[in-house]
Amino acid sequence: MGIRTGQQFIASLQDNRKLYIDGKLVRDVTAYGPLKGVIATMAALYDQQHDPALSDLLTYRSPTTDEPVSKTYLEAKTQEEFRQQAACFHFRTQSTFGLMGRLTDFMSGFLLDQAVGLRAMGKFEAAERAQRIVEHCRENDLQVTHALIDPQTDRSKPDAPVEAVRVVERRADGVVVSGCRMLSTLAPVANECYVGPFFPRKAGEEDFALAFLIPMNAPGLSILARESFDRGEDRAQGTFDRPLSSRFDEGDAILLFDRVFVPNDRLVVNGDIDAYNTMMKLATGYTFVQACTRSTMKLRFLTGLATAIARANGRDKTPRFQAAIGELCGLVNVAEAIRAGVISQAHARVNAFERGDIMQEGDGRGEPKFALGAGMAALNFFFPSANTKAAEVLRMAAGSGALAVTEADYNHPEIGPLLDRWLIGPNINARDRLRLMKMAWDMTGTEFGSRAGLYERLYSGDPERNAIGWFHSPITAECEALVKRALEG
Fold this sequence. Notes:
- The chain is 49% helix and 12% strand.
- It contains 17 helices and twelve strands.
- The protein has helices at residues 6-12, 33-48, 55-58, 79-95, 104-121, 124-140, 245-248, 273-278, 286-312, 319-354, 374-398, 407-411, 415-422, 430-444, 447-457, 463-471, 474-488; strands at residues 19-21, 24-26, 59-61, 68-70, 144-147, 166-171, 174-181, 192-195, 210-215, 221-225, 253-263, 267-270.
- The strands form three sheets. The chain has a six-stranded mixed beta sheet, with no helix packed on it. It has a four-stranded mixed beta sheet with strand order 5-8-9-12.
- The longest helix has 36 residues, at 319-354.
- The radius of gyration is 24 Å and the shape is globular.
- The protein starts with 5 loop residues before the first helix and ends with a helix.
- Pfam families: HpaB (PF03241), HpaB_N (PF11794).
- GO terms for molecular function: monooxygenase activity; oxidoreductase activity, acting on the CH-CH group of donors.
- It comes from Pandoraea pneumonica.
């Protein structure tokens, strides 16, 4: 099939899925007002692939069908291929200003990484199943999301909770699963969902050690989504008052599996705890290339919005805000360096795997002995901090001006002319200033903005658990060894 159009994507969502939002069953997501904005945004991304001026940037020829397919699925191996894949990620995330963290771009890299990781482990049958899933998603140009987290029943225990997705029946042609997974961003408007590893499983938890892909309309699957932050055209609040919510609200959902059948050709891991716990640790890093690109773009957008707001109210002339925004510009440069390093590290890992080296190591002198993943570290620590700081600078630059009146107020024949006289800024008229302030409020003060802040903090999981994982990494001993050498003189 190859690349789809935006209209084909929209039609694919009319699949009679069981989606619940705000206590109502939404059978046709394309007819649900609050989802129309984000669906239109995603459809436009599909249409970009058919633009002759962008086709070389966004697509490549399928290695199996020779049809044009999304370059997000390019299994880059050479420096040139990594450059091309990174450029595709950059352009696509630029189109959404880094505000949609779980577009299928993320899963393209994730699915590639799981296939590579399984091959590196010598789990060749599982790797072949994973590769077939990559090809299924690539050749059908699917919008894929994931559900990786067990339900929050008792987080004091490291065990898999009994409420998590697990095998309840084994058949010759597949397995039947029941349980819950969260938090599936993009699920309301995705075609398929990947259920896979995040927290490790232990011996005895084989029924919970599952990785599979399932369509969103699978019998027995219910999608319980949070309420949409886009109010939809039926509530008279559109792109002026909610310029970001109305276009980029991905949605988040809890997935409820009530005896859902997963056929063998959709199963990647089925009870193999070693594969479940290890396959993403041995990934090349395509996921990190995409994720760091997206996070960098969001940092750029927040920095740009803070600058525009500061200029709109004259704060760009004060040392305080020049320094604050200047620091953000510095962080953007650090982020770009991280992105470049992640691309370089992924390329080095490809070369290491081709040599048969599972653990990529340096010589212990000219470079670190252990190279464990700059991308994951950046997603755990740098980007949550940098994007939180940028949002705070934006919030302070806007000040109380972010509590702006609505488009309806501005369009009122009596009020509008007064706003044009009095709510202006340096070299900016009232309407343009108001639009900027509404965007700042949508980014920092609305439900969409609050969710965006929480999302960055939890993008790669529980921060404390991530930090503990790094404490137990080999780098800890490598750093501590420096102190021993210093003491020895």
